[in-house]
């Protein structure tokens, strides 16, 4: 049984390496060796944030007194935003590690990766969510084919006028298309990451609380490059960042290609364990994007 599981994981890895479109794998336009301080600033929990290796790595610490977080110096209206994360290991029930885009002010837009901690060797859950004009409840949850606490993995968000794509190690796991009159992000957003106490909801519906005896919990971050349309001081309308002259808005990024679509369908069929569009207890009438 372990042999078959290992074989399956290796086969999936080989499929990724041999078939992922170079537009994502090569990271066109993505700056290399960018330090934390070039693009980001610590926003809270300053005493719980450590910068290591000349700014090539940042660790966020969580104990009973505080967690920590950072955000991009600039706001963006489109782009491909990636970071490498190793989430806290051990008994982390109730602890949330987050990487996301968010606007400021009322009726906010937000695009979320959230890692929901767990206890007793149970796997970490990856949750994605969207807030559009202040309305959320668009959760999708996944188990992963690897242990995200053991090694760094790359998590990416493509946001352009045509679609939002969530990537895990260059595999598209979720796509939200801007079509058929759906709600869609319309405000400039900053890129943020944080480590915080979510034990009122994150694990077992809030029944599992943080066991502080296992603190501090540590989340590790690398790769602080940002590829996006900087909207600061130009306009509050993200339409200013819609030009196809930006490579992340060009034709190759307006839809998944055939190989990406196959990986997307395979991943969701095998690893998704919750989809808000299938939750009739939450919605008597499904949101427009679910049809």
TrEMBL record:
<protein>
    <recommendedName>
        <fullName>Xyloglucan endotransglucosylase/hydrolase</fullName>
        <ecNumber>2.4.1.207</ecNumber>
    </recommendedName>
</protein>
<keyword id="KW-0732">Signal</keyword>
<dbReference type="InterPro" id="IPR010713">
    <property type="entry name" value="XET_C"/>
</dbReference>
<dbReference type="Pfam" id="PF00722">
    <property type="entry name" value="Glyco_hydro_16"/>
</dbReference>
<dbReference type="InterPro" id="IPR044791">
    <property type="entry name" value="Beta-glucanase/XTH"/>
</dbReference>
<dbReference type="InterPro" id="IPR000757">
    <property type="entry name" value="Beta-glucanase-like"/>
</dbReference>
<comment type="function">
    <text>Catalyzes xyloglucan endohydrolysis (XEH) and/or endotransglycosylation (XET). Cleaves and religates xyloglucan polymers, an essential constituent of the primary cell wall, and thereby participates in cell wall construction of growing tissues.</text>
</comment>
<comment type="similarity">
    <text>Belongs to the glycosyl hydrolase 16 family.</text>
</comment>
<dbReference type="InterPro" id="IPR013320">
    <property type="entry name" value="ConA-like_dom_sf"/>
</dbReference>
<keyword id="KW-0808">Transferase</keyword>
<keyword id="KW-0052">Apoplast</keyword>
<keyword id="KW-0378">Hydrolase</keyword>
<feature type="domain" description="GH16">
    <location>
        <begin position="13"/>
        <end position="221"/>
    </location>
</feature>
<keyword id="KW-0326">Glycosidase</keyword>
<keyword id="KW-0964">Secreted</keyword>
<dbReference type="InterPro" id="IPR016455">
    <property type="entry name" value="XTH"/>
</dbReference>
<dbReference type="InterPro" id="IPR008264">
    <property type="entry name" value="Beta_glucanase"/>
</dbReference>
<keyword id="KW-0961">Cell wall biogenesis/degradation</keyword>
<keyword id="KW-1015">Disulfide bond</keyword>
<dbReference type="Pfam" id="PF06955">
    <property type="entry name" value="XET_C"/>
</dbReference>
<keyword id="KW-0134">Cell wall</keyword>
<feature type="signal peptide">
    <location>
        <begin position="1"/>
        <end position="22"/>
    </location>
</feature>
């Amino acid at each position: 049984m372990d042999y078959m599981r290992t074989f399956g994981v290796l086969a999936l890895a080989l499929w990724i390496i041999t078939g992922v479109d170079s537009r994502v794998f090569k990271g066109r336009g993505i700056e290399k060796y960018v330090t934390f301080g070039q693009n980001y600033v610590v926003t809270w929990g300053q005493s719980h944030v450590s910068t290591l290796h000349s700014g090539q790595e940042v660790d966020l610490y969580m104990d009973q007194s505080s967690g920590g977080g950072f955000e991009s110096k600039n706001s963006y209206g489109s782009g491909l935003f990636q970071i490498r994360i190793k989430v806290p290991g051990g008994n982390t029930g109730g602890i949330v590690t987050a990487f996301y885009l968010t606007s400021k002010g009322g009726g906010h837009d937000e695009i979320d990766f959230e890692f929901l901690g767990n206890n007793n060797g149970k796997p970490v859950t990856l949750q994605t969510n969207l807030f559009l004009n202040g309305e959320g409840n668009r959760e999708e949850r996944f188990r992963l084919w690897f242990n995200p606490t053991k090694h760094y993995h790359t998590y990416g968000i493509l946001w352009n006028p045509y679609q939002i794509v969530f990537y895990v190690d260059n595999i598209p796991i979720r796509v939200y298309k801007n079509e058929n009159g759906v709600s869609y992000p319309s405000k400039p957003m900053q890129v943020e990451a944080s480590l915080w106490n979510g034990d009122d909801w994150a694990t077992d519906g809030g029944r599992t609380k943080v066991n502080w005896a296992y603190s501090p919990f540590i989340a590790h971050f690398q790769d602080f490059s940002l590829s996006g349309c900087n909207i600061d001081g130009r306009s509050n309308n993200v339409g200013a960042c819609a030009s196809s002259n930006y490579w992340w808005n060009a034709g190759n990024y307006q839809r998944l290609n055939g190989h990406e679509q196959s990986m997307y369908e395979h991943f969701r069929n095998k690893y998704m364990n919750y989809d808000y569009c299938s939750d009739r207890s939450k919605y008597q009438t499904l949101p427009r994007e679910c049809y």
